[in-house]
Amino acid sequence: MKLIHCADLHLDSRLNTHLTKEKAAERRRELTGNFCDMVDYAAKNDISAILICGDMFDNSHVTAFTKNAVLRSIEENPGISFFILRGNHDSENFLGETENPPKNVFLFNDGWTMYDFNGVKIYGAELLSGNAASLQQNFSPDPSDINIVMLHGQETASNPRDKTEIINLRLFKNKGINYLALGHIHEYKVESLDALGKYCYCGCLEGRGFDEKGEHGFVILDVDVEAKTVTDTFVPFAKRRIFIENVDVTGLNNTFDMASRITEHLKTCSATDSDMVKIVLTGEVDVECEKNIDFLEKNLEKEYYFVKVSDETSLKVNIESFLYDETLKGEFVRTVMNDPSLTPERKAEIVREGLSLFSEVK
């Protein structure tokens, strides 16, 4: 028996941080379409169930188009069971719970719920601030069963601004869990939980921004009920990939040389015209360097679905060349260098920042 583990679809994300209004709308349709494509993949590959471990939607406002597309895919595939766990982005009525959900949809609540699915015990609970600790401490499945557990949360509080509930992996060790299916972290990660089982963040189904670069997709679980084993395989499935490429432009003094350096670098990158690419300019450039970021982006926009160029270069400043300069720049440099309250490091930093401003207003 085969199952799919996915999470963090974030359907109906706004996607307007970088993209134009038109491309953001197109990407929203693509995210919804990718869910439908995953269901089609499941139907064609004898997948018995799809486990969605939270954040199926991005916010409480779900458009009629997205809701209808999701429900249509579910209802047209009655042979596939959908186990859907709400995440921190999902609202209480994320699938129209005032109505009757499709018969092949199985939901969870804020207490442990267990479904016996063809001999596999599928557990799930929605972690909240008031129940997270007690739920995890009191979890006790039958270790003689094949046990799959669905949760949505972070394994550590690595981001203090992230208020999503923490999953204490220690509390799930040696409990007879074959596979701990997790959502919330948008990168694929799989590691041993204990001698028997694994825990896995499947990552998001589709990368949305440059903080979600790399391969995205879902995990297929192959369950052997008789042997009581669960094997997992990651399947890349995103319609578009996201790349961040660092390009060193040290010593280059004009836009056209930088454009050539970028072009040469991208020959080593596997990005295609369907992908999103962010170019990060690095290295040291002269304070008088001519650099047009808009031109660099326009120069590449036909090569990729979306291109962004970010300037993270630092200024190379020969301070001595300004000590006898009679211009305003020279006066600025001398004033900073003669300030006894500043350390040499701070003087250099102020000079670089100041000369950069001079260059911008030129």
Features of this protein?
362 residues; Purple Acid Phosphatase, chain A, domain 2; 2 domains
Brief summary:
The protein has helices spanning 21-44, 64-75, 132-137, 255-266, 293-298, 328-337, 344-360, and strands at residues 2-6, 47-53, 81-85, 105-107, 113-117, 120-124, 146-152, 179-183, 189-192, 198-201, 217-224, 229-236, 242-248, 276-282, 284-286, 306-311, 314-316. With 362 residues, the chain is α/β, with parallel strands linked by helices. The longest helix has 24 residues, at 21-44.
CATH superfamily of the largest domain, called what?
Metallo-dependent phosphatases
Using DSSP, what is the number of strands? Answer: 17
The CATH class label of the largest domain is Alpha Beta
- Decide which structural class fits the backbone: alpha/beta
Q: Order of strands across the widest beta sheet?
A: 4-3-2-1-11-12
The count of helical stretches stands at 7
Largest sheet: 6 strands, mixed
